[in-house]
Amino acid sequence: HQGHFSWEKYLKETGSQPAPPHCFRQSCSPPSNDYKIGMKLEAQDPRNTTSTCIASVVGLTGARLRLRLDGSDNKNDFWRLVDSSEIQPIGTCEKSGGMLQPPLGFRLNASSWPMFLLKTLNGAEMAPAKIFHKEPPSPPQNHFEMGMKLEAVDRKNPHFICPATIGEVRGSEILVTFDGWRGAFDYWCRYDSRDIFPVGWCSLTGDNLQPPGTKAAIPKSPLPAAGIATALMRGPKNILPALPGRRCRKPGRKKGQLPKALVHQ
Ligand code: MLY
Hints:
By secondary structure, the protein is an alpha+beta fold. It contains five helices and ten strands, in the order αβββββααβββββαα.
């Protein structure tokens, strides 16, 4: 559920800026999700990306599909955007001269694949071509900057989309860090990853945005231009901790220890 998380309030509190929408490989108006549970389509096997398999829609959330490969188990579900280039209507693979493959970890003997395929497609509801969307183009270059806020898939728990901050930028790679979590979920990805979204994406698509965690300090903007006036009004000594490269450490607090107020658990 959306909880009571408000980006507007949160951006003010953290004195931070959202990454502008042109940074992302996402369409500016999110694609409609016209899929239904049970529809079948072709999908790349995420564990064996050279093979095209039959997948069933087992869940819907915002502009995403929860997919399960036919003949696989229920422990390897994966999520794809409705405008992913990794999904296509049934028939596409064979039209281009390819052959549908059993998923990695096919439950049955490999020799039973042709019969399994026949049975799984017989009478199946195939997702119609018109509900697939073209993948948006990649932005020409990396426009992300450290400290910008975004919404990002937690790759260890890919059903979650969470508030995140750009932790570092290196060429075409960015470090995605999860607000309020200690770092175990952070990852590097290309700036045009399909797993990252502009602030407000979940509220537009109706997907669930997780609230920030409570296990670590929330990163503030490294250059708090917007927060400086507020800081000044609170007294000049409050500005110093806000400056880049400085840490606020009260007597009695050890180096590397977070202020009590920032540790919730
Ligand atoms: N129960 C899991 C889920 C953590 C999810 C973290 N994401 C949202 C960044 C755990 O505590 O490990």
